[in-house]
Structure formats: structure tokens, C-alpha cells
Inverse folding.
């Protein structure tokens, strides 16, 4: 028997057989003028929204978070409950109750959200978008009541608090608010302020780039297996080697070429491998992948503006 308590527009959907819960309900009447009951609200509680919410909570456990989604299944409710957030199915509750509103739906869903919520928002609020290709200009047109607009681009590294997060605030955002947002984002990765014109490059290099690095790790593993290693050992050593390389690059103040030189002796094994990688175009392939992804991001941004 599925038992779900539904209260004032807040409800759970599709419980499993043993699902018995009441979603927590914000008390609108308790809201004081110029005060928001929640610090942060999410419109779209999927992978990226959750990763960001969890990061916020890790560094600021006292933050009050409300999340809205059109699809609250049992697993999702449980995950958001686990980080102490409340849930709603009504997007307008986010604008009504949250000071910082995070747009974390897929690009194809943002128009519907914008149509629904165009009249919401106030000058006291901050609207932050994580949506690929969704520009500050589009945010301004869709949500004219909110002046403080922030666009970010990140990657799934956020899920393990190792994201690479590019941040572009609109010119109206006061410096202290920019600093506040940056310090919140620091909870789940490395943050950098970038001009909005860099967002497609960031999308290609770190947003999509994590997949290119996965592919290099996968190729390392396949090379290990082809050279005689068991799959198990090859798999563990491939990711460990990539981890070591990334940490060496981050922790050393030397350039990458000098780190390569360190492990390359004339006529040695690394030299032989690097010669083959050069012959087969490893470096050009990765650079080409980043540029193709950045160009695609540019195309998609233009489509979403139409
Ligand atoms: N995942 C990444 O690696 C990554 C990296 C960088 C940026 N991003 C950006 O992050 C955004 C979210 O990606 P994601 O991977 O988290 O997607 P996701 O897991 O699909 O999450 C989006 C959630 O929003 C819900 N939703 C759809 N329409 C809605 C509406 N009108 N109101 C409220 N909720 C709605 C979806 O429900 P349904 O399932 O019912 O549609 C889904 O649960 C995207 O715009 C993407 O560009 C993602």
C-alpha cells in the first residue's frame, strides 16, 4: 500500500510499495517582508541540481534548501531528504520562498519554465543558471523582475566535489553577492570568474572534456589489456595513473612538458610510446574534440536564443 501525504501543493509521486512519507511543507504565512524562508531553491532536482545542492550543504550545513521537480520519485525524494532539503512540485514555490534560485533543468525544458515563471522574482533575488547555452541575455528576457543574474558552467566532477566551475555574473550583481556565490560554489569544485564569451570554450573543455579524459583512461586500460594485463588490474591502474598525472600537474609549479620530459629517456619505453601517440595524432585528436564540443555549444546557444 502506497501512503503519501499531500499538503498544499507539495506531494510525492510514484512511491514504491513501501513508500510512506510526508514531504516537508514550507509555511508561506510565516514569511516576513523582505525575508525568504529558504536560502536556496532549485528548479530541476536531477543530477546537476542535486550535485550542487549537496556541495552547498557540505560547506554550509545550515543552509535551507527547497527543490522543485516535475518528477519526484522515491529515490530522488530520499536523496534530497538525506541532505536536509525540502521538496515541492510547484516551481513558483521556489521563487516565492528562496533568495537564490538555481535553474537546473535541461536546456529543452527551460522555455516551459520561463513561460510559467516570467512574472515571478524580485530585485532582492539572485537567479543562477547551470543550463548549457542559456545566456544572461536570455535569462534577462525570460525573468525581467530579477536583476542579479549568474550563469555558471560546470561538469559532473561536482558529484565528487571536484567540479571545474566557470562563473559569469551579470553586470548588475554587486561585488559582495558575487563573492557570496563564489564561496558557495567553492564547496563542490574549483571556481573561476570568466567572461560570458568563454562559456562555449569552458563547455567544450571541462563540461564535455571530462568525457574525453574518460576516453583516454579507457584507452589506457585497453592498451594494458592488449599488452597482457588482466582487465581488473588494467582498469585500476589506468584510473590511478590518470589521477597521479592530474595531481602532479596541479601540485607542481612546473609546466606539463617538463613533467613529460621527466619520465622520458632517450630510446626508452615512454619515448617509444610517445612517438606512436604522435604518429597516431593523440594530441590533435583531443584538441579537436574540445574544439568540436565548443563549436557545438556555440551552435546550441544560438538555437536556444531563437
Ligand atoms: N549533467 C552534466 O554533466 C551537466 C554538466 C554541465 C551542465 N549541465 C546542465 O545542468 C542542467 C541539468 O542537467 P541534469 O543532467 O541535472 O538533468 P536531469 O538529471 O534530467 O535533471 C533535470 C530535472 O528537471 C526536471 N524537469 C523537467 N522539466 C521541468 C519543469 N518544467 N519544472 C521542474 N522540473 C523539471 C526533470 O524531470 P523529468 O525527468 O521529468 O524531465 C529532471 O528531473 C542541464 O541544463 C545541463 O545543461 C549538466
Amino acid at each position: 500500500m502506497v501512503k503519501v501525504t499531500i499538503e498544499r501543493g507539495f506531494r510525492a509521486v510514484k512511491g514504491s510499495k513501501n513508500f510512506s512519507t510526508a514531504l516537508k511543507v514550507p509555511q508561506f504565512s510565516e514569511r516576513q517582508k523582505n525575508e525568504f524562508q529558504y536560502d536556496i531553491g532549485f528548479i530541476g532536482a536531477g543530477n546537476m541540481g542535486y550535485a550542487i545542492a549537496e556541495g552547498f550543504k557540505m560547506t554550509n550545513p545550515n543552509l535551507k534548501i527547497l527543490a522543485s521537480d516535475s518528477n519526484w520519485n522515491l529515490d530522488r525524494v530520499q536523496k534530497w531528504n538525506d541532505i536536509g532539503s525540502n521538496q515541492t512540485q510547484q516551481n513558483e514555490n521556489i521563487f516565492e520562498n528562496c533568495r537564490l534560485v538555481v535553474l537546473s533543468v535541461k536546456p529543452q525544458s527551460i522555455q516551459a519554465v520561463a513561460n510559467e515563471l516570467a512574472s515571478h522574482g524580485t530585485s532582492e533575488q539572485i537567479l543562477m543558471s547551470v543550463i548549457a547555452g542559456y545566456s544572461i541575455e536570455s535569462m534577462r528576457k525570460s525573468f525581467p523582475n530579477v536583476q542579479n543574474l549568474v550563469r555558471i558552467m560546470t561538469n559532473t566532477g561536482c558529484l565528487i566535489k571536484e567540479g571545474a566551475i566557470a562563473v559569469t555574473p551579470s553586470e548588475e550583481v554587486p561585488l559582495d553577492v558575487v563573492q557570496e556565490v563564489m564561496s558557495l560554489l567553492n564547496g563542490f569544485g574549483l571556481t573561476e570568474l570568466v567572461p560570458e564569451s568563454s562559456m562555449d570554450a569552458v563547455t567544450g573543455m571541462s563540461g564535455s572534456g571530462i568525457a574525453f579524459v574518460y576516453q583516454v583512461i579507457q584507452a589506457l586500460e585497453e592498451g594494458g589489456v592488449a599488452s597482457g594485463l588482466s582487465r581488473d588490474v588494467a582498469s585500476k591502474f589506468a584510473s590511478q595513473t590518470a589521477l597521479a598525472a592530474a595531481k602532479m600537474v596541479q601540485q607542481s609549479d612546473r609546466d606539463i612538458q617538463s613533467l613529460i620530459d621527466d619520465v622520458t629517456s632517450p630510446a626508452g619505453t615512454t619515448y617509444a610510446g610517445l612517438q606512436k601517440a604522435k604518429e597516431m595524432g593523440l594530441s590533435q585528436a583531443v584538441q579537436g574534440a574540445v574544439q568540436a564540443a565548443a563549436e557545438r555549444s556555440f551552435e546550441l546557444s544560438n538555437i536556444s536564443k531563437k
